[in-house]
Amino acid sequence: MTALRPEEGAPTRIAEAILLVVALALGMGGMWMVGHSLEGGLPEGFWTYTIVLAALAFTAHIVLRLRAPYADQVILPAVVLLNSVSMATVLRQDIVPYPSLQGANAPRHIMWSAIGIVLACIVIVVIRDHRSLRRLTYTAMVVGIVLVILPLIPGLGREINGAKIWIYIGPFSLQPAEFAKIAFAVFFAGYLVANRDTLALAGKKFLGLQLPRLRDLGPILIVWAVSLAVLIGEKDLGTSLLFFGLFVGMLYLATDRVGWIAIGLVMFAAGAVVAWSIFSHVQLRVNIWLDALNPDLINGPSFQLVQGLFAMAYGGMFGAGWGEGYPQYVPFAFSDFIYAAIGEELGLTGLLAILLVYLVIIQRGLRHAIGVRDGFGKLLAGGLAFVMALQLFVVVGGITRVIPLTGLTLPFMAQGGSSLLANWIVIALMLRISDAARRPSALPTRGALADPVPAVVGGGAIEVGGGTPVQAETEAGAGRSGTPDDATQIVRGVDR
Questions:
Q1: Torsions phi, psi for 205 (to 5 deg)
Q2: Contact call for residues 252 and 258 (beta carbons, < 8 A)
Q3: How many angstroms separate the CA atoms of 476 and 445, rounded?
Q4: Distance between CA 295 and CA 482 in Å, rounded?
Q5: Cα separation values, 464 from 188, 469, 472, Å
Q6: Cα→Cα distances 438→98, 364, 388, Å
Q7: Is residue 108 part of a domain?
Q8: Residue 490 lies in a domain
Q9: Domain that holds residue 432
Q10: How many structural domains are present in the chain?
Q11: Residue 467 burial by CB count (10 A; 0-12/13-18/19+): exposed, middle or buried?
């Protein structure tokens, strides 16, 4: 990957601004077509939603160019596109002929989207160097565990639809586990970058797999096990799966041991069998997945899934058109099943376009994980991109009946405050890391922080060329490298 030169800054800013205009235009076009189809004109609140989204998007663009001028120019417009298209979908559902739903969701969706974008801007301004988060490794561990436990506190947590995963603060509700995934990503990245040599090399071999010593893996294993046990007790199996995937994925990124994927799959299969044999709600979800059209289930537990499948089937290849579907017949079509609502009105073509936008975001995140010059940034960016990819697979797979439903929401699209806030923070961290990855090594990073631990993996996952490993990474981190080659990062098989 070629580093962005200072003279390329202006074209980059212009390109991002153009992409933002296109993203906002697509969202505005969707809202206009919804109003034209259902009301014969602009829908109520059209200009308010449009102006708010545009103002926030360009504010984020300005903050990004001022505080992180070398940040990726594609990620922000891609996320704004998802957010604006979801705005059109949620607004369309507020116009359905159900008085109890009219005007209920679109105002909340724009409010949480606005708070999420503002929060992302604050993260970009406050965190001037992503490596500063490494100092908070064990603080992030404690914060993550506390967030997971919060719904169990009497008077604070509340059970909704069989899962006790929400807390209520006044009139607002939050799902703390959404933020816990960020805290655990920071903890895993900080711990693994400091211990990956011993995790990759020390320990005994079993069936050809290099197993780490228990004392090396113990802290991270305890945190993972405690968080999963609490989440299972709260009946939040979707987030449990997400944390498990984050744990295994970041362990593989740190050690480059394919065996961890095999061990993770075996552990997942064993855990799934145990959960199915113990928990009745897991058995019910598996039955819904295997036999959704069962007459005993279709008017009860499997009703939502079947209605979503019918909605996507009605959409066909190109969809019924904005405002021409029947999302009111799909329970929670504005949140859990928004993907089915989009499929009904935009068809398979629209769904594939949405997936491509997500894949662009994930690909850019992984690309910057390769390009950034420090081990902590590599693991953090890779972990955040991977957990977004896993959540996308789990949500879309559940709605399309590839896997059982889990209750997770589609990032940036589903109407939900916790999901929007947490995922906008994830995007802010990705953008901050992309700024470090694309910044020419001869230019110092504002507020740069030297990494005291060399980013070297004995197994060869990450090697630093040009001088000694410690010198290369430290000089690259502090911006003192004489030439870009002094900080060249090589990930096995990929030369930046």
A1: -95, 140
A2: yes
A3: 10
A4: 71
A5: 21, 5, 7
A6: 50, 12, 22
A7: yes
A8: no
A9: 6-438
A10: 1
A11: middle
pTM value surpassing 0.85: no
pLDDT of residue 14: 84
- The two three-digit tokens of residue 377, written as one number: 């940034």
Tokens found for residue 21: 């205009």
Q: Please give the backbone phi and psi of residue 210, each rounded to the nearest 5 degrees, phi first.
A: -85, 105
Beta-strand relationship, 489-491 and 494-495: antiparallel
What pLDDT is stored for residue 452 in this prediction? 43
Kindly report, residue by residue over 286-317, the tens digit of the pLDDT: 889 998 998 888 888 899 999 999 999 999 99
Q: What is the Cβ-side half-sphere exposure of residue 45, based on CA atoms within 13 angstroms?
A: 22
CA proximity to 377, closest of 421, 439, 424, 468: 439
How far is it, in rounded angstroms, from Cα 243 to Cα 400?
22
Q: Which residue, 81, 210, 233, 224, is CA-closest to 151? A: 233
CB 486 within 8 A of CB 476: yes
Is 444 contained in some domain? no
In a domain, 476, yes or no: no
Packing angle between helix 106-126 and helix 417-438, nearest 10 degrees? 30
Taking residues 100-106, report their average pLDDT: 68
Model confidence over 353-403: pLDDT tens digits?
999 999 999 999 999 999 998 899 999 999 999 999 999 999 999 999 998
Tens-place pLDDT, residues 352-366: 999 999 999 999 999
What pLDDT does 158 receive?
73
Contact indicator for 292, 298 with CB cutoff of 8 Å: yes
> What DSSP character marks residue 160?
E
Q: Higher-confidence residue: 292 or 475?
A: 292
Q: Which single residue is written with the structure tokens 């940034």?
A: 377
pLDDT at 490: 31
